[in-house]
């Protein structure tokens, strides 16, 4: 029988260890692991998971900040042929529950801080067979059962347990996205998809002006529950890069980490970059030639300029939860390379050029490519080796996503003669604040439950800090403060997240409607344009 | 039906074109193509191949120097689901015929200069259905039929021809290697293997001291018949790098090309680097910070030093024809990165560390890993997503190659604590001169046919310029000049290549034999050690 090499996640870890055994993973300044030692820990965790009963295909959820435990789970869970569910901890309690139930999670790795929000609802989690709890303080909460203690599991040797053979088309990860307006949709990725995304994105980042190489120290500031932190952990460890985990985001501390550990490449949404460049301590890291990959929203020129004054070169990237995520990066191609520095900057702010293996088109509604005139708007459709093949248990959504065998991003863009695309609008009505989608349908539903509200609609208003902030329009007799108070109650009940609460509530007489009778949000957006 | 992304060679070309449409391919200073135009030419050639009858699985041979025609065939042949056979033009006529017959070639793309050696033997090529001849002088030789003229084929539009759907596991390329002592063995690679090799090797080359990026201009000086020119053409075009094709190797001209087109990265065997650094014109390109990837034989320290004086940073790479080829590169990992420049150099001369996705072990004869003590010698065995699964029509060879589901390289190495391997010897008896294996069995057979030779054996003698040169030992009454004359006749008859003729013929009384009665070549090698 012929040997077949499977593109599986264990190979990523092995590659990092064999080429760079002494490379370092630093956890928020508190702990350091060499790749060699980290790999041993991952193997122990994998065997521990088997020892407590985790089986092929079981969904194992992680509820955590960006910690070494999360990173261990990134590898260990797929390595036992289970499926890593990276739970969005910024969801309200209700949606956390909804996604865990929908994913059919069986085991959960959870940091002590998150235990209380899970314990409130213990009976509802009847489907969970084991809670693996960890704490950095040594105080393990006792309210969940059956309970395992992470550090205890990591003490054993499991010498009689062997890791399973993996196939590249086995599922490795799943998570939920509120990419559209409705309730979260599950996406899922195979081992093969993650391996291919890792090597291709790593290769694309070698280009200017990022020029990622073994000299760099990487710290993604993209939550690890968010599309594999854009794949940076897998990519970095595979290619032996020094890696810093920020833990829970605290921007004073993050700047200290960048300073102390010479972090040279960061990745984040625009609002996080904003929080860094406006932090009073940012001078500490000025003038070091840090490179920032900015995605999850357009990179505003003002922000890029502010970063540049601090010696931070920011470039755009683009992708979706559905696309694992990287599709494009605004690196310099031959034409841009030859331009003066001031011209190049314009291209860094564009959405970018496709990374290797991505097939990207901007098409009209008959699926014809639009001309490369930087004017004609079309939808971005893509093919790549790392796109979710389905929305979990959602046939209709899947069919819409993949109509005509191209993945429809719902993003509207123009293309220039140099091959760069620039997103000009989203087809969908979602509001994106601080890189997180706010599901407007869920929010509108919450607003509608306030007495005195007849009709309502939420749209995004451009915001320097957050990219967009929600604004609610409504008809009826309710006062803005009443609605706000109502929504705070819903936050406390775990129904919505606090950052979803609209900045403004605007009472109007009547909504303009589209031909199909829906509220015309374009009109509303026009009304609040600055 | 779910859309499945196939890892096929057309995607490499599309990636280069979509991210970098105006990038340039320069053919030896004579012609230039943008990626966009090159892609159109490839599509035309592909359709032309279909128009003359090329079908899925047909072997299409190319006999050429490193030209734009070759590069077009690299893409176009696999894109019609045919198999590109890159014929070794340094083989004697007999072996060229042998490999084309063994591969069952059906079509041949051939440069005018090579037509005469094929025409001698026309009837023997009964299996060839079409010869596609091209000439840069416009003088198309008429001695082969059925004959097509390349430039004529490229003039048509073929608007009614569609390219086939490709599967990633379809064969894309095949070629022959004299890696061992015997007659050439065929290896073969699928689309998937070549795509994965391209992205992984590109990623590995991003590391120091090569640090390959979009700024670089690449000119491989590895013949295109030789393991896909180490995969550099596929890798470079996929990632949008500027690419220079040297044509037929002429070192004065090559230095001019480096000078004129600012070539910054070259790749070659040690003897080619030797020819460059000793060329009287090399001063033209001194001090430019050129980077050289050196493989196909150990990189001697003296040569690396000579290169360094010219500002050329040379690093080792390692691979086999069987491995597509790259397995390791001597880039700097975390430990080496921290060393002073003088220390780093030692590591650049080692065989290297595995590139992403390569699993490489140094094992004893019970398949246990040897300790990383830089002393214990073991055989290098590998797994990677780009290894030939078979020797063509050679079950026994395939089984030996893949025993225990690891590919056995036959190369003996030690490993250090930093993860770097260093090859110390080859298990096999082959002689390697100027990066080309000389099949000693074939050569010994030729020598034995000289009257007055009783027994004979050929071994390699270390050589500053060529790496190794063959030396023949023999018993009997023949005089060295008689044997040399006999071999020259065999060169003229196309039985052996001229560069195979041993530098010395040493007459001895008797051969030392091994326990199994074979000539003990170790003893002979000792005798000629300098």
Automatic annotation (TrEMBL), chains A, B:
This is 4-coumarate-CoA ligase related protein. SUPFAM superfamilies: Acetyl-CoA synthetase-like. Signal peptide: none annotated. Transmembrane segments: none annotated. Pfam families: AMP-binding, AMP-binding_C. Residues 18-391 form the AMP-dependent synthetase/ligase domain. Belongs to the ATP-dependent AMP-binding enzyme family. GO terms for biological process: fatty acid metabolic process. It comes from Thermoplasma acidophilum (strain ATCC 25905 / DSM 1728 / JCM 9062 / NBRC 15155 / AMRC-C165).
